[in-house]
Amino acid sequence: MLKITLLANIFNVMKQPDKKNQYTKWAGFLLMLTVGFGGWQVGSPKLARFFNNRGVESYKVNKLADSKQAYELALLINPKSQPAIYNLGWLCEEVQDLECARGKYLQAARLGMPSAYSNLARLYIVDKKNYAAAVHLLLQGLKLAKDDDQPKYSLLKNLGWARLKQGRYSEGLQHLDAAIKLDSEAPATYCLKAQVLEGMKKTKEALPQWKSCLKYADSQDFDEDIWIGIARQRLKEEKTNK
Hints:
Elements: H1 2-14, H2 20-24, H3 27-33, H4 37-60, H5 64-77, H6 82-94, H7 98-110, H8 114-128, H9 131-144, H10 150-166, H11 169-182, H12 187-199, H13 203-216, H14 222-241
């Protein structure tokens, strides 16, 4: 029954004019899946990845409803698809449905996804103000992250952020410097490092970090937009005091 309902949903998507060509190549594959459970077991992960990728492409062109539908189809096919669960959490966060985002990130984290630990911890920092819980999640995520992996940068950056909020500046600085070594052009680490240095009463040392923050930060990012405002204010004050 589940397979029949699922196939009906997928074919409804396929019939939409603007998507027909994208999905036609999967028609034969979908028919193969109806042959038996064995075929379903083999083919479902590939099909789930396909719909997850379609969701990503729809998100890039701001078609959020299409993106959501694609992720949900991916999860109907493979309920343990880490990327689809994570991306659906990201989509929930984009529309400020934080309860939904937390639930999806937690689900993906339980499946062993380091990025999900990082994003869930970030929500504990910005929304719940529960820095101890954030640190716990980030340390768990670091156990899973590979040395040169993008998730490791995010985990270290957020760990530095959590330590900043706890007033544990030396530890925060250590984690942020480690994150910068992994990605020297990511703005968040500079914005956070500037705040750590100010917390350590090293105002002059913070100024170059604020400049880098302003250079790389993107106002479309919720957190970075706040830091852009702080960076401009700090640099304005520095110029006025000269």
